[in-house]
Specification:
By secondary structure, the chain is α+β, with helices and mostly antiparallel strands. 30% of the residues lie in helices and 23% in strands. The chain has 2 domains: 70 residues, no CATH class; 84 residues, SH3 type barrels, CATH 2.30.30.
Length: 161
């Protein structure tokens, strides 16, 4: 599990605010959080920046393994097949957008509304994409399969390990 997945939400918000003002340094912090498996592996200067932003010791900015287990104990680790969604059931998906933002969406597969009959000019599966119909936006959206953090379908929540 990457650091970015274990960081506490309030600390993550402070880093996002910091990134707005200091884009380069904020981007560097996010790169390190996504690259490292444990906060103890973060470069010293990044750890100090996080401590200063959060106003607390670096170890307190992240959930412990026990806390992560508690938070995910009612979840199934991502052992999920997209075919489970092809029956047109509405599902909830949480994923990381290309710009790093987290997005939650109620969606369906197999919707035929507003189709022109031409179809896509590429195979989304071969590029690791999932084309869904967003119920909130009333439009089609593309989600990168490797960016999915959580899917809730038929009352079962699947999360990424």
């Amino acid at each position: 599990m990457k650091c970015i997945d274990r960081i506490k939400p309030e600390v993550l918000e402070k880093i996002k605010e910091y990134k707005k003002e200091y884009h380069y340094l904020g981007s560097e912090i996010f790169e390190e959080l996504e690259a490292n498996e444990a906060w103890t592996r973060l470069p010293y200067c990044i750890a100090v920046d996080i401590e200063n932003m959060a106003g607390q010791y670096i170890g307190d900015c992240f959930y412990t393994r026990e806390e992560v287990e508690k938070l995910t104990k009612n979840h199934t680790i991502m052992n999920f097949n997209v075919k489970q969604l092809e029956n047109g059931k509405i599902f909830n998906v949480t994923f990381r957008k290309k710009n790093g933002a987290i997005r939650k969406m109620n969606a369906r597969l197999g919707v035929r509304k507003s189709l022109s009959g031409v179809g896509l000019k590429y195979d989304p599966k071969s590029r690791g994409n999932l084309i869904v119909y967003s119920m909130g936006d009333d439009g089609y959206r593309t989600i990168k399969l490797d960016s999915i953090l959580r899917i809730k379908c038929n009352g079962v929540e699947y999360t990424v390990a």
